[in-house]
Write a structure and sequence with these properties.
Shape: globular
Oligomer: single chain
CATH topology: TIM Barrel
Number of domains: 1
Largest sheet: 8 strands, parallel, barrel
Mean pLDDT: 93
Structural class: alpha/beta
CATH class: Alpha Beta
Distance between the termini: 18 Å
Helix content: 25-40%
Low-confidence stretches: none
Number of helices: 7
Radius of gyration: 16 Å
Number of strands: 10
Strand content: 15-25%
């Protein structure tokens, strides 16, 4: 079982079929800048189009180059896509139920929040927890839980945790100090106009914060 790399990019969630070639090209440029992990979270795509995109993404992030791929909320496609993991959302089927039939070699992640009961995390192999810093969801502003709350989640999780929400490269040291294993990034990375430059900034900031990572 392979867990995520320290810097984990989330796909923008707005792709349509005609955007996929440009998206893969962007991932390839980011890979050259050090990015190794992507969570594919395009819920508006049909299973057929989503699987085609996932397979292209797998080719762009091969395991021999330490590439890592997770499918968001589509565990039934994980084997066909040769994915490393399935990432469940907060309103998904409970991880313990998915774990019962998911192939043993595929990691199971779960998106969590400070208000969650820890027992609801049972069955997950890793967590993505947040939002840590203030961010936006649609037109609404969402307050961050802060790094102290992140540290408390890490302490009670008993599985590795990746921080999520409003995080820039400048937060790498605070995330590492909380005990989290890395950072999951949406708007600051693959959705950014200078994605490959940002990927390098995130990777280098984490290496500076955790030199042995």
């Amino acid at each position: 079982m392979r867990l995520p790399p320290p810097i984990l990019a989330l796909s923008p969630g707005t792709l349509v079929q005609g955007d996929t070639a440009a998206f893969i090209a962007r991932v390839l440029r980011c890979r050259e800048s050090g990015l190794r992990g992507v969570v594919l979270r395009e819920k508006q795509l049909s299973d057929r189009d989503y699987l085609a995109l996932a397979r292209s993404l797998r080719d762009a992030l091969p395991r021999e180059l330490d590439g890592w791929l997770a499918l968001h909320d589509r565990p039934h496609l994980a084997l066909a896509a040769d994915a490393d993991a399935v990432q469940l959302g907060g309103r998904s089927v409970a991880p313990a139920r998915v774990r019962a039939w998911l192939a043993a070699g595929i990691a199971l992640g779960l998106s969590t929040h400070a208000t969650d009961e820890a027992q609801s995390w049972t069955g997950a192999d890793y967590l993505v927890h947040g939002p840590v810093c203030a961010t936006r969801k649609g037109e609404a502003s969402v307050a961050g839980i802060g790094f102290e709350a992140l540290g408390r989640a890490v302490a009670r999780a008993h599985v590795p945790v990746w921080a999520l929400g409003g995080l820039g490269p400048e937060h790498a040291a605070s995330v590492a100090g909380s005990g989290a294993r890395g950072m999951a990034v949406l708007s600051g990375l693959l959705a950014h106009a200078q994605a490959e430059h940002r990927a390098e900034e995130y990777v280098q900031a984490w290496l500076a914060a955790v030199p042995k990572a």
